Amino acid sequence: MPRFEQRVLLGSLLCALPGVMVLVLMALFGTPGTLQIWGLVVLVVIGTALLARWQFRRIMFPLYTLAGLLEALREGDYSLRGVQGGALGDVVYDINALADRLQKERLEFEESSHLLGKTLAALDSAVFVFDDASRLRLLNPAGQRLLDAARSQLFGRSAEELGLATLLQGPSSVLLTHAFPGQQGRFDVRHAALRSNGRGGTLLVINDVGRVLREEERQAWQRLLRVLGHEVNNSLAPIQSMAGTLASLMARDALPADWREDFRGGLDVIAHRAAALTRFLSSYSKLARLPPPQRRDVELAGLIEKTARLEQRLPVRIESGEDLHVHADTDQLEQALINLLRNAVEAMLPGAGTVTIRWTRDGEHAVIDVEDEGVGLPPSDNLFVPFFTTKPGGSGIGLALVRQIAEAHDGGVMLVARETGIGARARLWLPLASEAH
Fold it and tell me: 267 CB contacts (<8 Å, ≥6 apart)?
């Protein structure tokens, strides 16, 4: 029997002790006189009352303590603790443990809420949370800037009043041009259903993609202008120098005997650098004007074998794979493979070796690997940057063109070092042709 129940039972028996003792005495000594009976009655009543009061205090005071602790928990005050021991020591221990747990969970909740608030405040995306009645219950500073209003003017207002109802009713993810009170431009809009406390709600996230695109465009222009400036300066500097030399030579009163040879040599330098600049601009035009792919069903094995035969400087070993078909532009895919094979061969020249090309299936993609036995990858992260090259006389558009073709076909390309042996591996992947095509 639990300890508290034992104490209650013992106390109840003690309350009956005076009456029992009187009955025992009467049984042993006989019935006393009237006056003695009334004296015994008074003693029994007083004794029983004292014992009842003692029992009441023993039972109710611990219950008062428990009631106070539970009231504190109900009011959210988890700092109070009961003294363990006594009649309800086990219950007090459990309530103290519950208070410790609730206090810890509240601290974790407050820390999580603080972290969530900091995270939402740091986001550039506008975040809105609406309840089941489509009234605003949460937003971050980016959302406030987007609506250009004080928080007190936004909370509790409906999506219709805020001008966001059409966004909640549209597709769950959409890219559109929109004008908000605080900003206009191109936005990525996403929304999803939420549930909290058994009630529904909606999360709305609006991201300004126009700003991101403008920043990417600015960086792309900066990279392009750096490359163009470098290449143009490389051509104009010797042209300007040689033109100045020829001008000073023509300014002499008496031309030297070898002035024809000097003029011919100077004009050769100018012509050579002008031709190099023309080739560079032609390469840029080729990269910038790549047309959209004209896709059709292409048998991969036949295209690879035909492309491999075009390379005559070093042997190309073909490791045949399964019969795979891709939905691609034959000319563009052939050009991409030619560029990869050319890079692999030039990585081994003027030495010797073998270039290996293979194809495999990886899920819903066809993967083409071109391996060489050259010196390996150069230490640079700019291999796919247009006009960047590590080869003397290179145009720097080969790999950039391959990546542009691969991405136009919903694929990709990467360069990695070989796991075994020396050299590098170029990997090109494209989606397999489906039966619908």
Answer: 246
Beta-carbon contacts of residue 156 (< 8 Å; ≥ 6 apart): 135, 136, 137
CA distance 167 to 172: 9
**Residue-wise over 51-62: b if at least 16 C-beta within 10 A, else e?**
beeebeebbeeb
- pLDDT tens sequence across 375-417: 776 655 556 665 555 555 555 567 777 888 888 888 988 888 8
Would you state the structure tokens that stand for residue 392, as one six-digit string? 């003397």
* 416, HSE (Cβ side, Cα atoms, 13 Å): 8
pLDDT value at position 391? Answer: 55
Q: What 3-state class would DSSP assign to 77?
A: coil
Query: So where are the chain's domains?
Result: 1-122, 124-211, 215-288, 296-431
pTM confidence score: 0.43
124-211 and 296-431: identical CATH topology: no
Give the angle 95-100-102 at the CA atoms, nearest 5°. 90
- 3.90.25.10, 3.20.20.140, 3.30.428.10, 3.30.450.20: which CATH number matches 124-211? 3.30.450.20
In this structure, which topology does domain 296-431 adopt according to CATH? Heat Shock Protein 90 (3.30.565)
